[in-house]
Design brief:
The chain is built from 16 helices and 22 strands. With 469 residues, the chain is of the alpha+beta class. The strands form six sheets. Strands 8-7-18-19-20-17-21 form a seven-stranded mixed sheet. Helix 1 crosses helix 16, helix 3 runs antiparallel to helix 4 (159-174) and helix 10 runs antiparallel to helix 14 (416-430). The radius of gyration is 23 Å and the shape is globular.
């Protein structure tokens, strides 16, 4: 009789927890799953806190409702699996703005991460060079080509579209620059269309037509009570043993399985398992792979990350516009790159006492010193810059919170998808019971991370002999 499988999931963020839930659902009965998390709490960048007596997100605030093909996103499917579908809430104010030329202008509708399919829609914010987007008689991209987003958009539509639209929208998600980020990884639908279409505006329209959204359908969702509820429910549903404060220092092949070295260097613990899901960022994954798969470690270890700080202010009855928030182009010279009016955007967070919660994001790739400013300096600068953008002096903060996320956001340079595919192919050939999962490989956002963890779990199940029947 085959003994129960023992599977280690290294990393207790939403990727690792999604992998653990999938293992519980699909692996044979009796499978032992242990999640090792270096920090003192699961959830990674999902963390709900409290400020001035009200709940607030100190990490990711929401998830996409639909996947790129137009179906239900992996995050929604997981929420449904965990019995929390009735707790999904949606923004009550969806319009956001751009801070340009010292004022706020509505973000144009109908763009694809800032890239327009109709140039007339962006005229109030940016001046495209329309003549450059001429039909050259061939697709914009070759069959296997990847380029930086900024390079493609600048060449076809000019600098203002990049600097005032695409860069701040990508920066709000990745804290990176359009001129550095891979089109294939950050905007895969546009990349697919660009392999067929001869103009950039045509590629945008084709990408949008390939995944139509029903009018009025919500784009984003969150959970009443906070995103930490998703973490707690996933940890419980997985049935996994959750080991917090447990650093995995080494992963070594052992017969048909693996030996993990866990804990402090002076008194390490040795654990034997049949399979491993590496659900940690690329650099720590590379360190764990260095002895076993050095070529793979080199392939994934070069991925760089941006650090950000989230500064939340509690303000008494401030004069805020009817917006969900705003994005700031790097050309504006401000420390903040985005702001969210939480208690305006999310109706369920509005408070009868008039206290508003405003969160600003600080930190762009290559500007880590901004994130390292003292808390008091960050709070003061954010308050001053918010007042300047809004054109009014905001009330003194009742309370504030600074959450730093060091090395939080992967910077996907052109060719990233091919590098990851090569690394995974090499791992499958040499070590099929060791898989990589997470934002460092597949993209940012809760749905992408959930799907990445689930896919890694399915690969482990197949490598060990197939799912439960």
């Amino acid at each position: 009789m085959r003994r129960p499988w023992r599977i280690a999931v290294i990393g207790g963020g939403i990727t690792g927890l999604a992998a653990a839930v999938r293992l519980r659902d699909r692996a044979p009965a009796g499978t032992e799953v242990t999640v090792y998390e270096q920090s003192g709490a699961p959830g990674g960048k999902l963390r709900t806190g409290s400020l001035a007596g009200g709940p607030v997100e100190f990490g990711a605030e929401s998830f996409l409702m639909r996947d790129p093909a137009g179906g239900e996103s992996a995050a929604v499917t997981l929420v449904r699996r965990l019995g929390l579908a009735a707790e999904i809430v949606h923004p009550t104010v969806g319009q956001a703005a751009l801070a340009v030329d010292g004022g706020l202008r509505p973000i144009p509708a109908g763009t694809l991460v800032g890239v327009p399919g109709n140039l007339d829609t962006v005229a109030a914010v940016a001046e495209p060079t329309a003549a450059a987007d001429a039909d050259g008689g061939k697709p914009l991209l070759g069959p296997n080509e990847d380029v930086a987003v900024g390079a493609l958009v600048r060449a076809r539509l000019g600098d203002q579209v990049v600097d005032r639209l695409v860069d701040p929208m990508l920066g709000g998600v990745y804290a990176g620059r359009a001129d550095d980020l891979s089109l294939v990884t950050t905007m895969p639908a546009l990349a697919r269309a660009a392999r067929v279409e001869h103009t950039l505006t045509g590629a945008v329209r084709a990408a949008q037509a390939a995944a139509p959204r029903a009018p009025g359908a919500p784009v984003f969702g969150a959970l009443a009570g906070g995103m930490s509820r998703l973490v707690e429910a996933a940890a419980t549903a997985s049935g996994a043993t959750l080991r917090l404060g447990a650093t995995v220092r080494d992963v070594t092949p052992l017969g048909g399985g693996w030996r993990l070295t866990v804990g402090p260097t002076r008194d390490p613990e040795s654990v034997e398992v049949d399979a491993v899901v590496l659900a940690v960022p690329a650099r720590p994954a590379a360190r764990l792979l260095a002895g076993t798969a050095p070529a793979v470690a080199t392939g994934v270890g070069g991925l760089d990350y941006a650090s950000v700080a989230l500064v939340t202010l509690a303000l008494s009855e401030p004069a805020l516009p009817a917006l969900s928030g705003f994005l700031v182009p790097g050309t504006e010279g401000l420390l903040i790159k985005a702001a969210t009016f939480f208690t305006t955007k999310w109706g369920h967070l509005r408070r009868p006492d008039g206290v508003a919660l405003v969160r600003a994001s600080v930190g762009r790739y290559g500007e880590e010193r901004q994130v390292q400013l003292a808390d008091a300096d960050l709070v003061a600068t954010v308050h001053r810059e918010l007042s300047g953008v809004l054109g009014t002096t905001l009330p003194t903060s009742l309370a504030s919170h600074v959450q730093r996320w060091g090395g939080a956001l992967p910077q996907y340079t052109p060719g990233h998808a091919d590098r990851v595919a090569a690394a995974r192919t090499a791992l499958r050939a040499a070590h099929p019971t060791l898989t990589l999962a997470g934002a460092g490989y597949d993209g940012v956002g809760i749905p992408v991370c959930v799907r990445s963890g689930e896919t890694a779990a399915e690969e482990i199940i197949s490598a060990l002999g197939g799912p439960a029947t």
